[in-house]
């Protein structure tokens, strides 16, 4: 996995991190990030998927309603959000690689309703599906991708080419790994603290 620390500390740009990467590298990075999430949830139980963790830092500025802005995310919520974000980044990257101009701030997002994620099997299926979709988008890249074509989410933002756009979504997804691990830890602790009823 790429070390995104220098990018997050503003010591390096995504363009610098992407130097020397090709489509095969992106496919490997996709497998690595999905595998890490599958490993993190390898021993969770269905009740852990809907467990609401203690998260005093919760602040979703894009929440549909103000009442949900500080809602702590469940394991299912985090995974559907992270995978949807990476799928959007991959969709943009494919368009950019093909030389297609993307309108300023245009979105290409579809997110499974997190409330539907109620079992471990559904989480694994979501991750497996997301891996397949992203790998197939990478398969659709041309042999000579257009790396001069750029996308901007806002007028003042730095332009991103196909590699940059892919890495920005991967960085976002990687940033959720610690959150997933913490939810799993809290859920496991909550389960272990429940004592069986006396007979």
From TrEMBL:
Residues 36-180 form the DinB-like domain. Gene3D superfamilies: dinb family like domain. It comes from the Bacteria. InterPro entries: DinB-like (IPR024775), DinB/YfiT-like (IPR034660). This is DinB family protein. It comes from Candidatus Dormiibacter inghamiae.
């Amino acid at each position: 996995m790429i070390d995104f620390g220098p990018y997050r500390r503003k010591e390096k740009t995504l363009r610098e991190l992407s130097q020397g990467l090709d489509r095969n590298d992106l496919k490997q990075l996709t497998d690595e990030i999905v595998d890490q999430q599958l490993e993190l949830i390898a021993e969770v139980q269905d009740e852990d998927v809907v467990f609401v963790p203690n998260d005093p830092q919760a602040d979703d500025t894009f929440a549909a309603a103000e009442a949900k802005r500080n809602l702590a995310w469940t394991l299912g919520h985090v995974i559907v959000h992270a995978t949807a974000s990476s799928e959007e980044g991959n969709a943009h990257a494919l368009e950019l690689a093909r030389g297609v101009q993307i309108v300023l701030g245009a979105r290409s997002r579809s997110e499974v309703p997190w409330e539907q994620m109620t079992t471990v099997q559904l989480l694994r299926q979501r991750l497996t599906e997301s891996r397949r979709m992203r790998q197939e988008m990478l398969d659709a890249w041309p042999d000579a991708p257009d790396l001069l074509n750029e996308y901007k989410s806002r007028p003042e933002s730095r332009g991103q080419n196909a590699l940059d756009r892919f890495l920005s979504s991967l960085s976002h997804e990687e940033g959720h790994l610690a959150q997933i691990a913490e939810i799993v830890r809290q859920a496991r602790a909550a389960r272990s603290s429940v004592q069986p009823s006396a007979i």
